[in-house]
From TrEMBL:
The keyword Iron-sulfur applies. Residues 16-122 form the Rieske domain. It comes from Sulfitobacter mediterraneus. Keywords: 2Fe-2S, Iron, Iron-sulfur, Metal-binding, Oxidoreductase. Gene3D superfamilies: Rieske [2Fe-2S] iron-sulphur domain. Pfam families: Rieske. GO terms for molecular function: 2 iron, 2 sulfur cluster binding; metal ion binding; oxidoreductase activity. PANTHER family: BLR4922 PROTEIN, IRON-SULFUR DOMAIN CONTAINING PROTEIN. The keyword Cell inner membrane does not apply. This is Rieske-like 2Fe-2S protein. InterPro entries: Cholesterol_7-desaturase (IPR050584), Rieske_2Fe-2S (IPR017941), Rieske_2Fe-2S_sf (IPR036922).
Length: 131
């Protein structure tokens, strides 16, 4: 993964921080709690092998996604079954009426991650004004 891009008014500064060894996810613990600063996340690998580092609490009722289930190429909340992909986008809400698209408006925070040489790193950014 490349370094995140700057916007027109801000520059993005930061660094890659090692958060886990790849073998940690591959060895019986498919969901790993990660804390970056004061923010809590959950790290997982989806069925395509892609990594996700998303906000740890479901926006519906605050359930801890570390207790969720990996399924259908994402992470399903253990409380009411909301389903999130590795970008943090909600892709399904089981109790919504047929045809509802409310899930498209729901997203949990996501941090870019990369994997190199058996190490997983997260992008920790500091956004500052260009002036």
């Amino acid at each position: 993964m490349t370094t995140p891009q700057a916007t027109a008014h801000n520059k993005v500064e930061g660094h890659w921080k090692v958060i886990a060894q790849s073998k940690t996810l591959d060895a019986g613990r498919p969901l790993l709690p990660i804390t970056l600063g004061n923010d809590r996340f959950v790290l997982f690998r989806d069925e395509e092998g892609g990594l996700g580092l998303i906000g740890r609490n479901c926006p519906h009722r605050g359930a801890d996604l570390c207790f969720g289930r990996l399924e259908d190429n994402g992470l399903r909340c253990p409380f009411h079954g909301w389903h999130f992909d590795r970008t943090g986008q909600c892709v399904e809400q089981p109790a919504e009426p047929e045809g509802s698209k409310m899930y498209t408006q729901i997203k949990v925070p996501m941090v870019p991650v990369k994997e190199e040489n058996g190490v997983i790193s997260a992008w920790c950014e500091t956004t500052g004004d260009k002036t």
